[in-house]
Amino acid sequence: MTSLTAKDKNTVKAFWAKISPNAAAIGADAFSRMLVVYPQTKTYFAHWKDLSPGSAPVKKHGATVMGGVADAVAKIDNLTAGLLNLSELHAFTLRVDPANFKILAHNMLVVLAITFPNDFTPEVHVSMDKFLAAVALALSEKYR
Amino acid sequence: MVEWTDFERATIQEIFSKIDSGVVGPAAISRCLIVYPWTQRYFGSFGNLYNAAAITSNPKVAAHGKVVIAGLEKALKNMDDIKNTYKDLSVLHSEKLRVDPDNFNLLADCLTIVVASQMGQAFTADVQAAFQKFLAVVVASLRKQYH
């Protein structure tokens, strides 16, 4: 869709500074929620023993994903180049249908709304939504 | 017909009793108009929607937020037959208002986020799932009379 303006990038970086101390917990919550609210996403994790919210593999993976998002914030000026390796991973190895990136993004926004009820204003929301969409697009780059 | 578990019924009723409907409706509509600006196409008569501050303080936007919540409360009272309860609303949205039904999902997402921020930690994954199922049924019912 639309590319990130300078205002979007500044908003994302400023908000990320608030997120980063709790990034792992936020990632874990968003990821658990996705598995509960959108059960079809569990199909990618059939090889895990425990998919319940708060389980060890779920928490660990939520933290891993948020690490990827943190990386994207640092590379916000060129997401396509910056996320090339992750794109290859998702395209050739994991083969996650890109529609799921939107689903995970939604759940991240829900957790951000819960964690930062006053700071997650509509202006922050629109910049974060655009950013996560741009990350999803960069992740989809190598798919075909 | 939609099957609701006891947990879902109780949870959805509880959400509506806990939230401040005078706040949630206006907040969700204004968030939708800000985060997805193309939705403003349906509100040409609302006056100043020029920026986020204008949208948030626009009295017509706030009034419309309350109308939307009243509609959801109607669904809440008729959970076992939302489809028929919404028949006229669906015709209104398709034939008179001509709203692209994909927009209903955008508003549903904004409602979820506003309710989440109001309820905080009480908005657990299971509560979120119940609420999103309710909104999905509402959206499907609103889409029903589009031909």
From TrEMBL, chain A:
It holds the Pfam family Globin. Keywords: Heme, Iron, Metal-binding, Oxygen transport, Transport. InterPro entries: Globin, Globin-like_sf, Globin/Proto, Hemoglobin_a-typ, Hemoglobin_oxygen_transport. Residues 3-144 form the Globin domain. SUPFAM superfamilies: Globin-like (SSF46458). The keyword Ribonucleoprotein does not apply. PANTHER family: EMBRYONIC ALPHA GLOBIN E1-RELATED, HEMOGLOBIN FAMILY MEMBER. Involved in oxygen transport from gills to the various peripheral tissues. Belongs to the globin family. This is Globin domain-containing protein. The lineage of its organism: Eukaryota, Metazoa, Chordata, Craniata, Vertebrata.
TrEMBL record, chain B:
The keyword RNA-binding does not apply. It holds the Pfam family Globin. Keywords: Heme, Iron, Metal-binding, Oxygen transport, Transport. InterPro entries: Globin (IPR000971), Globin-like_sf (IPR009050), Globin/Proto (IPR012292), Hemoglobin_b (IPR002337), Hemoglobin_oxygen_transport (IPR050056). Residues 3-147 form the Globin domain. It comes from the Eukaryota. Belongs to the globin family. This is Globin domain-containing protein.
